[in-house]
Amino acid sequence: MSRVKSLREEGNVLICALCTIMVISLIGANVLHNCTTRFNVSSSQVRSWKESLFAAEAGGDIAYAQIRKTVLDPANAFTGWENTPTASPTLHVSPETIFGSNDLKTRTVVDLFYYDPATGNPWFRSRSKGTAPVDGLPRTGMDDRMGAGTRGDSLLRKIDFRTDHFVATYGPNGDGLNKALVAVPRPQITRRIEQIVAPVTPFEAAIKCASSFYGLGSAAQVDSFNSKNGAYYFCANNPADPNFKDSRSGSVAINAPVAEVNGMLYGNISTNGGAIRPSQYITGTVDNNVPFTIPPFKMPTDLPAPQPSPTSITSTEVNLTPPTAGTPQTPTYYLLSALSSRVVINPVGSQQTYVAIRVTGDLTARVTVKNNVHLKVFVDGNIDIKARDIDNESNLAANLQYYSISPASPATSQFIHIAPPGNFAATFYAPSADVVLNGNPDLIGAIVCKTFYGNGNTSWHYDRALDTEGDAVDYRVVSYVEDIR
Length: 485
What we know:
This protein is 16% helix and 32% strand. The protein contains 3 helices and 27 strands. It has helices at 7-72, 154-157, 165-170; strands at residues 82-84, 90-93, 97-99, 104-115, 122-133, 188-200, 207-209, 213-214, 221-225, 252-254, 264-265, 269-271, 286-287, 318-320, 332-336, 343-345, 353-359, 367-369, 373-379, 383-386, 390-392, 400-404, 415-419, 424-437, 442-454, 459-463, 474-483. The strands form 3 sheets. It has a 16-stranded parallel β-sheet that branches. It starts with 6 loop residues before the first helix and ends with a strand. Mean pLDDT is 90; it is low at 143-156.
């Protein structure tokens, strides 16, 4: 006997199925809603957050390249930027750069905020802003609740949906001045970084050459001391001496293969592919895999106007007493077409006196630097002198610095010849010059050159105080920080 199903039972099944479908649909809709929110944040806002930093760092790289040009290519430094050299500090504002498939934007402000009191070299600060557009729904974060403290990570990312929050809160320069509501054309994220760029000075080793090296004599000696602790005396073989720690930095760096270095070396030696081996004649480390570059030297463009006279020194001895003592940043400047007769540079009274001389031809004369005088000699041509012509009464190498300006054409030869007799204290930065040092001088200082030849038994004393001396030859980033406001 068959049983007939109740219509009421069939209706209950239908209602249960509909309720199940509705519950599953609500769960699916909620999951989809949450996924959409998180997809919007992860695929758009997080990407924009990262890309805005990429844009800011790109602006920092552009600024760093321009800062390096101030010494490597000064005629073209900050070309196309908005420059205000009369401002205090000097300002350089870059044009806005738009790049990449996502239309990233960057802009940088560079200011010359500090001069080294010892060398006069400028330090730069670059502040770069990077902006990336934010696509997707205008949500402030992954949390739908809008109460205090529940806005997810929007406080971290600081998305500008309608106005620039930074200008509204801190002002355009971040100093609290000129606050304003500035509309943005579309939602965006902006991040800001600040970099401090410091000068690189040239005299970090006793001898540094870019190519071939020969010397010194078999009885030569290279050691070091620090003039800030007093005059030189030999203590490189006495660990108990209080200045022993400064006596073994007479290092040599050669960017070429070298078979042999003669003499006693109280310091390190490095070559680029050489075959030097540790020995009892080298107290420091030996590294035969250290390539490096020596940037060419360009005449500085920030010197003051030259004095009206003299314009050449060729026949009789000339005594020069500058009209003012000057500073490392603004020395008294003389422009000479020739220097073939002795010149004596006197201080202004008992003051520390700063002088710069440029010789557009060859230098073949004796240069005498009196005590309290700091002299830089820039030479376009060659230098051909005797060691006694490098007459530095203070015996501080930093007080007499020679710079050979690199020829416009790399094919043009340049040389520095230093012949006996005599001893001297000075530095030479000549990245394009072939240096020949003859005789057996006792010298204090450092030489940077293209090639080096020394056939005498020289006593060479590197002054560790030269680590921070000399005209800037490049720049490096020494500080990086993100402005998280």
